[in-house]
């Protein structure tokens, strides 16, 4: 995610980081060169005058506006829904931590601290650590990366082995949390009515994961994208022929501006349509999952933790 | 669902799989041939000059834009809501599996493993299998197909018979799950407060089924579709007469581009408006229900399962 | 609701059932006759040349597009929300049936089957029948019709008398269901935590009824409708004067097409804005309430029921 | 709220009640007079020809369309959300009545009817009356009026005194309902699980009140309204200069039509943006709160109540 | 937030407070000066005639309309969602106060009033004060200011110290409220089913905080803003060249009007996109949090409190 203030005045035109220009400069250049050639040859192609005026572009503007507007809104909706899901995950994780810490009673009789991983006294704390692990695991699942050092100190050795073996680690972690909760109920450390609330929180985390998988796995129908790309390309590459008779030597300049906005809007849609990647405008999943870790660890009294990451070169990952 | 990367450059124009062209080429061809004839005869029809200019098309563009934009958004909303419902089903199924596995206690006194289908020890496991069967049954109900081998190993023989006899199998399965839950409550294997949460999960699955039936059974009002088709056809078939005087021999080309976008948008809307079918852009219900099966079986410790299906020829069913 | 496949090719132009033409042919005819007269007299009215060009219509197109687009979306949103509410009612009814059948225990000690209407053993079944009655009663309330034979076999004689006496029968039925639930709680046949879930289902049915009443009783503000009608009528009736100078004898044809889309869109909005009526494009409340009856009766083991109604002349009521 | 059928044919143009004309006729008249003057002087102002054509109005149409469309949608969304909140209040009130009547048990041992206001036997009934009072109090809070005779018979004398003293009476009533519920719990007349459902209903009523206050206290940002008004006024008052050269003596007529739609849309937005007032198009809060009273009183067996109010002069308040 | 009535007539054009003019007058002035120069030199730049007509601006209007409309809607949606979240916070706080006051029983045996901060009798009251503190803390977190005197009388000395030490004070307060609730459960002062409802209210407050953080930390993707600014600036600065040939000396005036609307819309979007600041059109967080304090204190019987703040110079902070 690009994090920078809006530049003002002329500097507006010389910002590169955060501009979509780096992704579209080739096709833009080709288009401008074509416009220059058309201007030089007065719209003739192989000695045949291409009799286009502005009218076809007004007509073509109609479906193009529908496509671009639709695609733009759909892509942003996906981006924003993905961000909402992660905001919900932050809320669910905080709720989970609050519920585990205060609603689950100490074991009765007090367990002798065995130091083992199954020490019931520590179960609420281990559940909170697994909640943090869930956020990291979801991030890695969505980005297709490996959860390595992120999980240090969050899972026990045996949990880590099973985590690595499981085909969908996020499902594994929620199942473990469900097992912990069931164990607390059987040990009578929590009233079933309150356990039902924790169970609801877990279901909320399942919904977040399912929602993110939906956005990742179901793109905007490919035929839309194809139809939009084709129309936009045809529009921009034919445009010089339609303009040269009325605005003469200004044709390449106007074509450049129009093509910049159309190709830019198109490329931007490509980028935020899949908001879980590592491109400039994608969501800062790493910062988000680290914020969850930071929040849940401080809530347990830990201090001197590394703060959540800050943007580098105006970019937060 | 078409799953492929966006082609770049010139290849963009030669992609066939995923293009809507295969559905509209006849009407498009007729339109282009008409445009060629109009261009040759300079807009005369039976020796009478058709005095159309671009103005009527600008005026007609207004209602057409409203129709196309509306229909496009409505169709995509249906598609995306259907996908959301299946995402919710995935979440509900995972939640159901977690709840059955960890909130329902073992019978007390332990049941002697009788091997029969009513062995109470296995009831949570059988509930999870019925949840999988529900996903498959919903898929088949929405597609109008028969659930044959999909149900192997999920239902007992007697359940399978009653399943086949029931007019709405999805209702049957949820009713069975409700009966299982009631039985667990009567056997005191689950606290009512927690049973209430499982009951809520079942209600969520009922809502998903009702939502999918709503989308399947209630199309966009037919009069809209008819009004839109008629306007789009009239617009495209009259267009050559309006353009020939100003852009001459480029008329067929421009008509082809405009008609391609209008007919393409229209056909695409037809396709995703009913997202449960078996066309290219429809939802991959088979992959979704198999993912549910895969998730729920692995959560119970099964491994070496067939992975959920992958796209064939860029197409996921 | 019109249920028919999209006609293809030329047949598209000759479909009458489902077309909005039957509702607007008078005003359309008047408009076309005016356009013919204007064409014959070259735009003179009482020997005064009406100096209109296409420009005023481009300017007027702006507010008209805002009005038509807004009204169109608002009307469809009302239609679709109404359908969603009935989908929710279907889900709530199925949930209610499942909960009554499996969460309410048999009376203890078993009641001697007295055959009377207050036989506690039958109470869950009677609650399910009242749920069916609620769906029928809501349909009749929304359509302003009388629930006669629909209620046969659903309510006891005394209930039916009180039903007929009550000013809002849907409120009466939900109150009766609440009383039944309270009775089951007092008889200790259901745990309060589970009863709370049934109570929530009842609240969902209350919300559905309140939502449907909202749509029925609160139309789109009348001033919008008036402003839109006036603008659309002025636009279409002035249009011939603006076109005749540039497109000559094609004027009546173009006016006919434009007026058909504008009046059609307007009339269609009128129809689906109030989706509970008995017009062609209204919601099939009868089919929906019968589906609920069919579902709930089959879930109780009844078979050989009359199937939910099918479309007649492409129309489902 | 205007309640009348859509007039047809010519009568459409002579409807006054429900038309926005009464609010905009002054500015409209000024505009038309200006257009007549411009037409007479051929667009000269103090002997200087104002060289405007239609082009600036096409360009200005773009931001104006964005403003008007945005403002129109935002205002209607506020109106419709306000109506939804009151629909939710109707549902919550019915739910509250059902829950109080059937989930709260008679006191044990039976209280001797003391006739005092604290007679525990009557508490459910008094809670229902307070729910009715809440609906009336919310109406008066939103309209800035005094709840006088509306509360007769709903509150006891001491409650009425405290109601009058409280700075926010709606908060007072919900607090009283919460106290009644707490008292029932302490008297063991309701199981806590069921009391939790009533508490949830109360929270729903709190949300309705907070939602209505939000709409009342937070208008659409003033700068939007200002920017829109200025642009619309400039557009309409400059329009005669741009049209007079091309359409001559028809200028005042076209200006009148365009200005009527723009000013009308603007004034209509002003009206429904604040939907709780007493203007023609505002929400019929009085009818809604009386419907709630009628519903809740009939549900308790009262008959021969005054029916909810009907529209007077096509207007429901 | 600007709170003032809409001015009427000519005064509309002389309102400054609430107008966006103060933020854009520099760039507007530069644009107008350029337009005057272009008009004087008849569109020549360094003796070269810039051959622009209105056509490029019609074409450029298409992407610009998509950008401006999208950005405008997205910014307002953020503003309105932020307001909804604070409305939800108001509702949650009132609910919390009602639940703490009436669902938590007095301690049994009655605690001897020790006067200490841990006096269990006062715990519900202290929980309500912490809820008020949460609203103030959230306001300060979102505005980046320090919660100084706002917290006087709300937190005990030791709580205040820990509050100041905690990296995210809002998380701290909800954790404290969770601990208080857990303590009440352990002391058997509240039934777990009812405690579950209070826990749900706390989760609602967590969601509000997470939603506000989402809006604050995730702006509209920077590339959109950049693309929009560039297109709008190019459009307005090139516009004089396109108009001068057709409308002559009116060019600077028309350019001023068009640029005012485009730059104004752009600047307004900048302002409400981040609704938690201290600019004129931002949300009145201070008034909102003080309303919460006022509501919760009066509900506990306090009177003679300072009323929530009123607008100063038409502006509510």
From TrEMBL, chains A, B, C, D, E:
One of its GO terms (molecular function) is chloride channel activity. The keyword Transmembrane applies. Its main location: membrane. It is found in: Cell membrane. It is a multi-pass membrane protein. The chain crosses the membrane at residues 20-42, 48-70, 232-263. Keywords: Cell membrane, Ion transport, Membrane, Transmembrane, Transmembrane helix, Transport. GO terms for cellular component: plasma membrane. InterPro entries: YneE/VCCN1/2-like. The keyword Cell membrane applies. Belongs to the anion channel-forming bestrophin (TC 1.A.46) family. This is Bestrophin. It comes from Halothiobacillus diazotrophicus.
